[in-house]
Design goal:
- By secondary structure, this protein is α+β, with helices and mostly antiparallel strands.
- The protein has three domains: about 1-55, RNA-binding S4 domain (Structural Genomics Hypothetical 15.5 Kd Protein In mrcA-pckA Intergenic Region, Chain A); about 60-125 and about 210-240, 2-Layer Sandwich (Alpha-Beta Plaits), CATH 3.30.70; about 130-210, 2-Layer Sandwich (Alpha-Beta Plaits), CATH 3.30.70.
- It contains six helices and 17 strands.
- Strands 7, 8, 9, 10, 13, 14, 15, 16 and 17 form a nine-stranded mixed β-sheet that branches. The protein has a four-stranded antiparallel β-sheet with strand order 3-2-5-6.
- A hairpin with a 2-residue loop joins strand 11 and strand 12 (about 155-160).
- The protein is elongated, with a radius of gyration of 21 Å.
- Bound molecules: uracil.
- Uracil binds next to helix 5.
- InterPro entries: PsdUridine_s_RsuA/RluB/E/F_cat, PsdUridine_synth_cat_dom_sf, PsdUridine_synth_RsuA/RluA, PsdUridine_synth_RsuA/RluB/E/F, PsdUridine_synth_RsuA/RluB_CS, RsuA_PseudoU_synthase, S4_RNA-bd, S4_RNA-bd_sf.
- It is an enzyme of class 5 (isomerase).
- It comes from Bacillus weihaiensis.
Length: about 240
């Protein structure tokens, strides 16, 4: 038995809040009858319709991909380039990425068909910590690292506090490898943050997403999340994990 709004959200139809609105507006039917009570519980055998369309109920699936660079974080691409869902031909559910990694960024990406789960992880207020390793042109000074940590001014506003650490320096090539931990998920944020302090990114990889890492995986590999990991992620996103 599951609450009706949860079933609608899990089917990827709408967020849980939107599902509640649809129920209150009388747009949801269970076994042919309009249901307006939010507490209503349904089982797998109940026929749910939302705005006249039967709800396709899919088993939720949660996978972690070590995305190679040169792959689009989308479910399809107009130009026929490889997309992240191409790595999961055996998954019949319609999964999609939780947020995105740039075409030329590699690393840890989650995919799911659970709309509610994806929404809570991406909610700007509850964004979980993400850890990136960047190779940049030049060797940032201590002051520049502090700037990154305090927040830099980007065209869409100042970035939130972050952690930055130099991992290694190649003086001959004048490059540097750094770790940057952030909570936000703005478009091309890490590249733009380094650009803003004058050190353009040459290579970027997401090593960690909350407590998840890429251990045991090679580029292009994937694995299912365990039910415990899914629970932990939900709890983290809901209760906050700010540094
Ligand atoms: N920041 C970036 O600049 N690119 C990514 O892919 C992810 C974070």
């Amino acid at each position: 038995m599951e609450r009706l709004q949860k079933v609608i959200a899990h089917a990827g139809y709408a967020s849980r809040r939107k599902a509640e609105e649809l129920i209150l507006e009388g747009k949801v039917k269970v076994n042919g009858k309009i249901v307006k009570e939010l507490g209503t519980k349904v089982t797998d055998s109940d026929k749910v319709e939302v705005e006249g369309i039967p709800l396709e109920r899919e088993e939720p699936v949660y996978v972690l991909l070590y995305k190679p660079s040169g792959v689009i974080s989308a479910v399809k691409d107009d130009k026929g380039r490889k997309v992240v869902t191409d790595f999961f031909p055996y998954i019949k559910q319609r999964i999609y990425p939780v947020g995105r990694l740039d075409y030329d960024t590699s690393g840890l990406l989650l995919l799911t068909n659970d709309g509610e789960f994806a929404n809570i992880l991406m909610h700007p207020r509850y964004e979980v910590e993400k850890s990136y390793v960047a190779k940049v042109k030049g060797i940032p000074t201590r002051e520049k690292i502090r700037e990154l940590e305090k927040g830099v001014h980007l065209e869409d506003g100042k970035t939130a506090p972050a952690n930055a650490k130099i991992l290694s320096v190649d003086k001959k090539k004048n490059t540097c490898i750094l770790e940057l931990k952030i909570h936000e998920g703005r478009n091309r944020q890490v590249r733009r943050m380094f650009e803003a302090i004058g050190y353009p990114v040459q290579k970027l990889k997401r090593e960690k997403y909350a407590f998840l890492n890429l251990s045991g995986l090679n580029t292009g590999d994937s694995r299912e999340l365990t039910p415990h990991e899914v629970k932990q992620l939900r709890a983290l996103a809901q209760h906050g994990s700010k540094i």
